[in-house]
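Q: Here's a chain of 414 amino acids. Please give me its 3D structure as tokens.
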Amino acid sequence: MAAEAAAWAGVLAAVLAGRTLPQALAAAALSDGRGAVMDTAYGALRFRGELEGVLAQLLRQPLKERRLHALLLGALYRLAHTDAPAYAVVNETVEAAGPKWARGLINGVLRNFLRDSASTLERARASEEGRWNFPAWWVDKLRAAYPEDWQALLAVSLEHPPLTLRVNRRRISPDGCLALLAQAGLAAGPSGPWALTLDQPVPVSRLPGFADGLVSVQDAGAQWAALALDLADGQRVLDACAAPGGKTGHILECADVDLLALDADAARLERVRENLARLHLDARLLAADAADPAAWWDGRPFDRILADVPCSASGVVRRHPDIKWQRRPADLATFTRQQAKILAALWQTLAPGGKLLYATCSVFPEENQNQIQAFRKTHADARRLSLPAELGDGRLPPARRNDGFFYALLEKTS
């Protein structure tokens, strides 16, 4: 068991040093205890605000040793938010601590927490970060942008995300897929036109039809991108920031189109290739910067463009809890400049009468509605169109069945 504690400490220490959680997990090369280590790493980052508040009470001064700090965060998460036996958590964490002085420190901190955990947690939750488990600046931004819903948005972002499938309706119907899932002992229900959400998440290896391309794993909110793009057979389509390829595959499942999938990261573009191969679909793939059409565009305009632009990813933090601690307010200005540059560049490649869908997985207005308002002020030929009724004004906040997204459909009038 001490090996698991050492593993989660290594993963969390890497995240505290600035690596993303997926990078840290990949570097750890987990095998034994992978599930427990991943749950602890994700959980400690989801509840980091509260856990840091606990440590501030139990330590005389902040720990300089990042690994011990990470070890304690993981142990406190397991004590406060799981049903793991307290004695086992303390013993394995102490054993993984290393030198005698470190073992004594870890043992004292954890046993002091257990003596009065309820009061210690209550005091930790007195601050905004401790209560909401988000940086204070993030809480302030959501409060301003969603004055009636900000608390619910923060709360749902601490939940475990659902496992949602996109049914490949070229190959199987949603009802047929439900029957396959039932035969495999998996309960699910519809959560969108092409979406089925499982009652309980399972490893991808347990999903019937996944390897054969009958289904893909894709959030219900993300599935609206291809559906909102108003696709038809024969169109020339650009997926401008395609990796890892979930929306690319969905576009090709929706219609027989001539699709160019573009991404600036050649390594991530391989994920697109792998996804399309599993789905038995084909597109032209190109590693290039969407903001620089001179480097890749052949001059033939596109009928449809999906601009799923880089963003803060503030709408998907329950899947990526490291993001909320690694983002800084200044990052938003960087993203908005990049988004504006990409949007203006892609507009040049859109045919008159063509449609561009601007998409983010952000909940912050400056990346969403403010970006579109600014673009339309400088582009008189951009007309904003209605979206499917389920998307309302384009803001799709995080909810139990979907992550947070924003969509805006623009038509080029001349």
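Q: Can you summarize the key feature?
A: The chain has three domains: 2-132, 164-217, 224-412.
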